[in-house]
Amino acid sequence: MNARDKLTPRGLSLEFSRHRNAPKLAAIQRGGRHEKKLKESRQPRDHHHRSAQQRSQTAHTGAGQHDQRPHVPKRRRSPQRRRRHLARRLKHPLSASAILAHVLPDGGGDAENPQRILRMLTSYGVFAEHLINADDGGVSQQRKFSLTEIGKTLVTDQNGLSCGPYILQHHQDELMGAWPMVHEAVVDPTVAPFVKLNGEPAYEYYGKKPEMNGLMQRAMSGVSVPFMKAILDGYDGFEGVGRLVDVGGSAGDCLRMILQKHPSVREGINFDLPEVVAKAPTIAGVSHVGGDMLKSIPSGDAIFMKWILLVWTDSECKLIMENCYKALPVGGKLIACEPVLATKSDDSHRTRALLENDILAMTIYRPKGKNRTEEELRQLGLSAGFSHFRPIYIDYFYTLLEFQK
Known about the structure:
Oligomer: single chain
Order of helices and strands: HHHHHEHHEEHHHHHHHEHEHEEHEHEHEE
CATH superfamily of the largest domain: Vaccinia Virus protein VP39
Largest sheet: 8 strands, mixed
Number of domains: 2
Radius of gyration: 29 Å
Helix content: 40-55%
Strand content: 5-15%
Distance between the termini: 52 Å
Shape: globular
CATH architecture of the largest domain: 3-Layer(aba) Sandwich
């Protein structure tokens, strides 16, 4: 991350988490240097016992014999590991000037402007602000900042995941440039504004740009893995399932997590487009199958779908769910994870986030794909032949929908 990137809101939060414990580390390092000096002082000073010829040779060459030994660098943690290590030990707030000193260790910059950014992020709950009495007897106060629980989601965890890539991915020029064209989805709902701006659908566009595609994959993992953990902790519907099909399973990460949590699932089928599953890694107990969900779906005791229906039209969703129905035995179930809109709009954070996500899908992916209400999803299931419907609100943003045959 260069200096310019470090001065972005996310960059500040990451650098803050990386260096917050710097005073403690400095003390440890000073202690290490002191110990090293003590060890050196105990070594015999053989320089004065060497012959005049040896001292003359040393002076001539400019180095003693022991200085010519190859230098073996100490093993150091990678920057990512250091960030994780320090983030777990965040204790003391830092001032804007202290944060800036870590962001720009060679000096320069203006601490007043980062403080303005930090205060703005505090109003969004990313940082907590602390007014601390200065060393002048309390006459003045110093403003310091610490990460909140929201801010910590931008810090890479022990599994290398965070919400940071999701934020970065959704602020790329290719996506941001589509927002001023959102009216195009009204004028011509057959083509997404993203396509009109960039010339091709988002997934095809990303597939040709490895760096962007990598960021998108990290973004999806950053939000998908925590949600899957919440599902596995709060839902027992996978018990008793022998063969589980994941429709649109990509690399098979969800199936991997499900099989680890539920060993009773004997076989997992990761079903996606042929070009997608061709790159999927080998996973114990999982078979990768290529195909088209609009044509047919492999049979199983249960079918799992995550974030699939929101990018398809009502008629396409009905067709996908009918194919699921055909692939299930009597008593089998379709387990779908989807955002569920409130029946009536309100000004809550949840409703606002879901509606913003709905417009995102319309602008970037498909104008006729959409988020739906609980009743709209229930009606889709009934129209496909399912007789029972059960919504389970697992997460603040996404809902588990169980359709039984």
